[in-house]
Amino acid sequence: MFDKKLISKTAEKYKKDIVKFLRDIVAIPSLSTKEKKVVDRISLEMKKIGYDEITIDPMGNIFGRIGKGKKIIVFDGHIDTVDIGDPSLWKVDPFKGRYEQDLIYGRGSADQKGGFASALYAGKILKDLKLQGDYSFYVCGSIMEEDCDGLNWQYILKNGEIKPNVVVLTESTSLNIYRGQRGRMEIEITTKGISCHGSAPERGINAIYKMAPIIKDIEKLNSRLKIDKFLGKGTVTISQIRSTSPSLCAVSDSCTINLDRRLTAGETEKSAIEEIRKLSSFKKANAGVKVLDYKEKSYKDLVFPTKKYYPMWTVPEQGKEVQTAVRAYRRLYGKKPKISHWVFSTNGIATMGMHKIPTIGFGPGDEKQAHSPNENIPAQDLVEAMKFYVAFTLEYC
Ligand SMILES: [Zn+2]
């Protein structure tokens, strides 16, 4: 049943095809909310491979299914990308899918069209080798992750028909097994003042001066946030500041700062907001605090509003999912895998963080490539991930 040599040989045989497919989808720009063209291309590839069922949900996420067994295994890969940033930093065209010395270059190659392509082609191996099992193998090309991680799976799990037993995130892990990440929040703090003519500031109340001690306190707050042995430290930083006033010759009547808060084990939306409310500077300024909302339209014009609170999550190292992954890895490579966590955030915030669906990560490419100029992924990683996804599916059943 688990013929390691045959799986490896077949994966190697498909290397040319997967490289071509990845280069194709890298060459189709797909910023968050603009994924339609890449979804169409993916749908074509799924047809070519012979997926049993291909569906696109009302939000615009695409699913391919193979088999209709009891165990629902979903391999998720977001197919949107961030923008390219400063073009002068790119030595290669970000949308050509250049292939050189076994590296595929371009925006989205590592983050994370590569992982998605590997999952898609794992389906081809299952199909072509007729590898049977009591599984429904799904590959999900999810959208809008870069703008709002997990929004896709919040929607799918609320409105869709798929109830996975396990989700494997195909984001880059350098072919290691990941089992969690810190959460995050986008928070806004506002102080109000009373404007007056700038020539007589004593007549008004300056909102910026009210904010100043809060800024100091946020910096101090960061240094005393909790450290978790596995996930690392909770952090907070101020990402933006702005203010309003009737003119440049007036006292400011409002000041707003935005916080990027990363949540480690044990930290929640409630605890993070409470900490801010407790700051003496915050109380003294009578300031306001809120978590921001996300309500952008998908490429299919669907709006699914959510709060920008992305809970942290982990699954236990000794749990079924991680141990299945460890066995699959050992069978393929005859050695112990490294087990770790992402530094950034993933769709796991919805699958595991909100809905408690066991979620793990395994993906080709290096996490450090994400959002960087000259982003690239080793083609051989794609082959290895393909093998692992097949091995995990068989081992899980
Ligand atoms: Zn990503």
Automatic annotation (TrEMBL):
GO molecular function, one term: metal ion binding
SUPFAM superfamilies: Bacterial exopeptidase dimerisation domain, Zn-dependent exopeptidases
One Pfam family in the UniProt entry: Peptidase_M20
Gene Ontology biological process terms in this record: L-arginine biosynthetic process
Keywords: Hydrolase, Metal-binding
Ranges of residues in domain Peptidase M20 dimerisation: 180-281
Record-annotated membrane-spanning stretches: none
Keyword Hydrolase recorded: yes
InterPro entries: Bact_exopeptidase_dim_dom, Peptidase_M20, Peptidase_M20/DapE_YgeY, Peptidase_M20_dimer, Peptidase_M20A
Protein name, as recorded: M20/DapE family protein YgeY
Protein's organism: Candidatus Roizmanbacteria bacterium GW2011_GWC2_35_12
